[in-house]
Amino acid sequence: MIGITFALIAAASWGTGDFLGGLASRKLSHFQVLFVMAFSSLVLLFVCMIIWLEQIPTIDNLILAMIAGVSGALGSALLYKGLSLGDAALVAPVAGVIGAIIPTLVGLWLEGFPSSMKLIGFGLAFIGIWLVTRTKNGNGQHVRLGLGLALLAGIGFGGFLVIIAQVEGKQIFAPLVFSKLAAVALAIGLMKSRQLSIPKLLASPIAILSGVFDAGGNIFYLFAAQFTRLDIAALLSSLYPAGTVLLSNLVLKEKLSVQQRLGVGTCLAAIMLIMSG
Questions:
Q1: Contact at 8 Å (CB) between 65 and 178?
Q2: What is the 3-state secondary structure (H, E, C) of 46-103?
Q3: Structural domain boundaries enclosing 104
Q4: What pLDDT does 112 receive?
Q5: How far is CA 141 from the centre of its chain?
Q6: What's CA 222's distance to the chain center, in Å?
Q7: For the segment 36-69, what is each residue's pLDDT rounded down to a tens digit?
Q8: Nearest 5°: CA angle at 107, between 160 and 89?
Q9: CA 239, CA 255: separation in Å to the nearest integer?
Q10: Rounded distance between C-alpha atoms, residue 238 and residue 225, angstroms
């Protein structure tokens, strides 16, 4: 139950961070927002590492953390690019579901199958993630490039969830510091390749706050992975789109489609089945 609770907190934190990141992207480019988010996350995680007196990870763990950071950052960059080229009603669900499937399959392979009740909950969670990220304007005309980028973005997200959970030991903040350090370096490279200026750190307070919630999601996901199975931690953490959609409805007054309402309900049902199983 502790691991499940941490995973749900991670989902809520990531969902809030994505919502704020979307707001920030209205004024800055996606890559500039990615930089500000990653840098603010890095600062927060570094402060936490110092306060908790965590040591620098071993070389093996450090490499794993940095690979995870690059994977997650690439996932975000590819998702942004895919949304700009293809149909958002296809790109977002594909990236979200692929990102959840990969760690779930890895968890099943490493730890075996859970109870039948949890397996049913897994299936409902996949359906819920798909439904909640559907937009009411989807017209079924999907761009191949956008679909390909969405698949790659999902692989990036799934890779992050799998790789960062493989870091050994009880350290939480130190591995994430190096993960975000790699993400910051990647964001700078992406901006330079597109001749974008590096934004001032206070250029977007919303992006900074988004980075704080992103760091929170990372922290609670690692806590969850220590207290429960990888597949359960990753799948429940991947319910974050529900939080993004609900915040858009509450704050921006964006109306939820019937599919999105059904998706939120399906996600809640999945959570109850996984917890009860």
A1: yes
A2: HHHHHHCCCCCCCHHHHHHHHHHHHHHHHHHHHHHHHHHHCCHHHHHHHHHHHHHHHH
A3: 2-276
A4: 81
A5: 26
A6: 13
A7: 999 999 999 999 999 999 999 999 999 999 999 9
A8: 55
A9: 19
A10: 13
The per-residue b/e assignment along 92-102, b for 16 or more CB within 10 angstroms, e otherwise, is bbbbbbbbbbb
Rounded to whole angstroms, the Cα distance separating 151 from 146 reads 9
C-alpha to C-alpha distance for 270 and 101, rounded to whole angstroms: 15
Run of H or E residues at 120: helix 116-132
How many structural domains compose the chain?
A: 1
130 close to 97: Cβ distance less than 8 angstroms: yes
pLDDT band of residue 181 (cuts 50, 70, 90) is: very high
| Residue 239: per-residue pLDDT | 80
| Location of structure tokens 């304007």 | 137
Q: How many Cα atoms sit within 13 Å of 103 on the Cβ side?
A: 30
Question: Is residue 136 within 8 Å of residue 259, measured between CB atoms?
Answer: yes
Is the torsion defined by CA of 123, 124, 127, 130 positive or negative? negative
CA gap 22, 3 in Å, rounded: 28
- Contact at 8 Å (CB) between 246 and 115? no
Q: Report the pLDDT value the prediction gives residue 91, as an integer from 0 to 100.
A: 60
pLDDT at 139: 47
User: How is residue 137 written in tokens?
Assistant: 């304007």
